[in-house]
Amino acid sequence: MSSETPGAPAPTARRVTRRGVRALAVAGAAALLLGACAGGDATEAASDAEGTPAADTGTTDDGRSAADITVEPIEPAREITDAHGTTVATEAEPERIVCLVALCDDMLTELGIVPVATNSELLAHPEFLGPEAAAEVPVVPGGFIAPEPEAILSHRPDLVIGLEDTHGRLAPALEDATVFWTVQPENWQDSIAYLRDLAALTGRTDEAEEAELAFRTRLAEAEAEPSDRTALIIYGSDENFGVAAPGTDVAAGLFPGIAHYPWESRGIEGTYSLEEILAEDVDVLFVETLSFGGDDAPLSEVFAGNPLWESLTAVREGEVHEVDPEVWAKGRGTRSLGIVLDEATALL
What's the number of CA atoms in the CB half-sphere (13 Å) around residue 215? Predict the structure, then answer.
């Protein structure tokens, strides 16, 4: 990472060896958890006193080797331009942040910050704040789809973070009263870039560097010993389901590097049928049951008795695993993705 400030010394990148990388990752993750309770080659990110760090992952490794992972330093900034070209500027380090998307909660936890309000259940996970501490965080009425602008602003936020394709329409109601930032991660590299940008704005740069190093280390270790089993992530409610595919689902984007994952996004053309899934002979099936109010039965139970479902190798061999959709489907950040890696590799 370089500085545009004339005469400023070049920061030294964090560098670890194979001997020390696991200890650093574990220690960094533990330190971040305690603090919360109290794809291609990345290019060089730049910033100056005015603050315009590039929306990059800030690393010189390819994400596939734990032997020599380098995470570039992050410089505090008052203005950033994110991975998708959105510019965000704050007059001071944001302290009162409202999260409309779980990625925001994930990033804040990594940085040791608690949001002043949220509409996600992610914080209740034991590797985030836990149920008791999460219960102290106010919930924005209106839910994820339609959060109420008046309720958001009642928390006097100096930064609101939402999802572009869902919350972008709130901009006219929020932009004159606060700083509104919409994100749209497509892969884990985007997630790291957003974390680095938020760290620059909040000044929590050390925390973000440690979180990035911990995640990259976990990913590199998982990719160093990939499984040859065929995996699949499905999501849905009732008998309506979709296949999580790289490019549209951040967690699914991890799987081609750690298992055989032959699923690609079909965009508006639709998803896969049970017949097509059966043809791929899935060995391990991860299921995200999405609830839209009420006590929905697990998706794997809904399909029980369906002849095609019962014919799947994963079903016959007892390798169907219900996973937490708050983490797997909604979290999208480095802490959530680290949990996904740990849970997936233990079962593959």
Answer: 30
